[in-house]
Amino acid sequence: MKIISGIYRGIKIDTAKDVSYRPTKSRVRKSIFDAISPFHFSSVLDLFSGTGVLGFESISRGASSITFVEKDAKSIRLLYRNREKVWLQSYKS
After folding, report:
1. Contacts with 34 (C-beta within 8 Å, 6 or more apart), sequence order
2. How high is the mean pLDDT of the chain?
C-alpha cells in the first residue's frame, strides 16, 4: 500500500496479515480525496486507523496534524512504524 498523492507520494505504508483491519484501497482513497478536493483541512481525525494510511495521505496532501484512534496493540505498533517511515522521508526532502 502506498501514499497516492502529495509530498509523500509513493511512500510504502507497511501492513500486516495478523492484524484485524481492512485497509482502504487506493481507489477508495482517491475517491474520498477527490470528493473533498481542494484539500484545505489543517487537522484530521483518523478513527479506527489500522495502518494509518488515510491520516498519512492527509498529511501528504497538506494537513498539519493527524489524530489517530486505534485500540488494537498490533495496529498501534504498525502506526508507529509507518509514522517513522513518513518522518524519515520528510527529513530527506
Report:
1. none
2. 89
At residue 55, φ and ψ (nearest 5 deg) are -65, -45
What distance in Å separates the CA atoms of residue 31 and residue 5, rounded to the nearest whole number? 12
Q: Which of 62, 6, 51, 64 is nearest to 30 (CA)?
A: 6
> Cell triple for residue 23?
485497509
Rg (the chain; Cα; Å): 12
Q: What are the b/e assignments for 46-57, b being 16+ CB within 10 Å?
A: beebbbbbbbbb
Positive or negative: CA dihedral 15, 19, 87, 55: positive
Instruction: Specify the pTM.
Output: 0.86
